[in-house]
Amino acid sequence: MTVVAAVVAVLLLGYLVVALVRPEKF
Fold first, then answer.
1. GO molecular function of the protein, one example (predicted)?
2. Domain spans of the chain, in order of start
């Protein structure tokens, strides 16, 4: 369960980083 939570956290962080770097895309 910890591995799944870690993967989800990494995906969410990556999405937030992309949203901050390319705001015009969203």
1. P-type potassium transmembrane transporter activity
2. 1-26
